Amino acid sequence: MSLTATSSGLRHTVWVLRGNLVTAIAAAAAILLALVAIFGPMLVPYDPVASDVPRALQPPSALHWAGTDQLGRDVFSRLVVATRLDLAIAVTAVSVSFVIGAVIGSLCGYVGGKLDRAVGRFVDVLMAFPLFVLAMAMVAALGNRVENIVIATAIINLPFYIRFARAEVNIRRNLGWVEAARACGDGHVSVVLRFLLPNVLPAMAVQMSLNLGWAILNAAGLSFIGLGVKPPTPEWGIMVAEGARFISTGRWWLVSFPGLALMLAVLCFNLLGDGLRDILDPRMRT
Amino acid sequence: MGTIGATLIRAGRRFLSSLPALFGVLVFTFLLMRVLPGDPAVFFASGPSAGNEEIEVVRKQLGLDRSLPEQLVIYLHDVGRGNLGRSMMTGQPVAKDLRQRLPASLELTLTALVIALIAAVPLGVLAALRPNSLIDHSVRLFCSLGVCVPTFVSGLLLIYVFYYLLGLAPDPTGRIDVFASVPPARTGFLMVDFLLAGDVEGWWAAARQLMLPAFTMALFVIAPLARITRASMLVSLGSDFVRTARSVGLSRWQIVVTYALRNAILPVITIAGIVFSTMLGANVLVEKVFSWPGVASYALDALLVSDYAPVQGFVLLMASIFVAVNLLVDVLYGIADPRATVA
């Protein structure tokens, strides 16, 4: 890509961001989340797993900003430390799904025939399950570990990427410039990798940002029902699960703060995804 | 007659085309549960201290000593006869357990869907009638926030507000107070059974118990429903036939409801099918939060003691319901839009 194209793309981005305050805020929040995930564990005021039973179940105060849980652990420190794990699960799962889905989908769209039909059947079977139930069954089957939450979340995301990449490649495979590439002596692999994929990736990246929020909710849901992450590891879903026992006696902070963290993270990725779509695909603007 | 016939043919054709997916679901569930960790034979032979002989007997009893393809054929045969295996946790056939508990889950999910539709369609219509107004922006804000709050968090917060703070809701565990008398189970749907028994007080108690979980689940799906209603209403309101209807002087109500909404409802029906799938998943979380005695909490309990037959049965049941709902959506689509049946 030439320098002018890059700088005009950048200028376009800045222009869109200036006109779209919400996306700018979402982008800033995403960066902030990433910083918290990287540096948070070094900055927290308390050890996230050290219990201090005499101080158990204290409401938020100047000492403990988000109160303490049933073992006297500082909820704020646990929230901050949990950011890394929650984001890592979602980002890894969505990236794995993105890469595998892009490759399989574009192969199907380009080659067609038997491979396409076989993959199509497989995708149909996956989509016949309610996806959260499928993820739950997979974590149960593969073993109750964090890696398996990542694998399960990646698999339930896969159908969307496969279908997306397949459709996008399929409508382009016989276009003039692809024919031209073939006529110039480019092999099939090279046509797919150098000409077709780059055209499909931007739209898929938008999908990825939108899916991140969904992946976060899924992973937190799984650990809420006791799959994957094990206590005492700080994780937002588990913190809500542990706080659930105390909600009917009015200990609201144990559920609200991790809930708020989940909500803000998901909101941030959703808004960012919408904004990215506006930047990359002006036709979809609503 | 012609339309009904066409609808039936369409439904039949759709059913046939969903059979391969259903078969795939069966194989998938089978394989999934075969790789489950832990040896169920050891688990069910009175614990880890059981002798090798005893374990072998249980293994034979469960059919675990045969090859995988053999086991698959046996499994398919069993499912065909409605035999989903036996739960070691309850000591009952899984099919019986599921049948007993399914009405509780369906009552919850369907109530939630109705609440969501009643809330979402008017919200979407209002937003579409005045684009970029205060109403439109509030609906959009509500929708953006609604999809971000996990069901288990909103459920717990509703408990905090309505049970702890306001004292309006009953103790948020189960379908009915443990000491309350339960009506004879005719349908399994408590709300219906209480009505059949003529017990108004009991009906009210059960309804109050149902409200919080149902609203929790509805909150999660109002957003996609309202959003699609708005988008589809905008298209429909901007179309030529609405302009014509307006020009011949029809009342505003008639234009919006009879002409615009009726034409805008198709995408809403389609999305409702997808939303139902999300709800079957959310059901697991909501049943856990409210200790709702449905199929999902049954499967979760079984999962924690590695009793795999109930989990397998549950996953299969959910997938079958989803396939059936998709079929229903397709048929509804044909009824709502007669053009679709011609193709």
Automatic annotation (TrEMBL), chain A:
> How is this protein situated with respect to the membrane?
Multi-pass membrane protein
Name all ABC transmembrane type-1 domain ranges. Answer: 83-273
Q: Does the keyword Lipoprotein apply?
A: no
Q: Mark the transmembrane ranges.
A: 21-44, 87-110, 122-143, 149-165, 212-229, 252-273
| Family assignment from sequence similarity | Belongs to the binding-protein-dependent transport system permease family.
Which Pfam families would you find in this protein's record? Answer: BPD_transp_1 (PF00528), OppC_N (PF12911)
What are the UniProt keywords, alphabetically? Cell membrane, Membrane, Peptide transport, Protein transport, Transmembrane, Transmembrane helix, Transport
Annotated InterPro entries = BP-dependent_transpt_permease (IPR050366), MetI-like (IPR000515), MetI-like_sf (IPR035906), OppC_N (IPR025966)
Location of this chain's protein in the cell: Cell membrane
Protein name as it appears in the record: ABC transporter permease
TrEMBL record, chain B:
Give the ABC transmembrane type-1 domain ranges: 102-333
Task: Please verify whether the record's keywords include Transport.
Answer: yes
Read off the PROSITE patterns from this record: ABC_TM1 (PS50928)
Bilayer-spanning residue ranges: 15-36, 108-129, 141-166, 203-226, 264-286, 314-336
Pfam families, alphabetized = BPD_transp_1, BPD_transp_1_N
| Keyword terms | Cell membrane, Membrane, Transmembrane, Transmembrane helix, Transport
The protein's topology relative to the membrane is: Multi-pass membrane protein
- Location in or out of the cell: Cell membrane
Q: Which CDD domains match?
A: TM_PBP2 (cd06261)
Question: Could you name the domain of life of the organism this protein comes from?
Answer: Bacteria
User: Mainly resides where?
Assistant: membrane
Instruction: Note the PANTHER family from the entry.
Output: DIPEPTIDE TRANSPORT SYSTEM PERMEASE PROTEIN DPPB-RELATED
The family classification in the record reads: Belongs to the binding-protein-dependent transport system permease family.
Q: What is this protein called?
A: ABC transporter permease
* Species of origin: Bradyrhizobium agreste
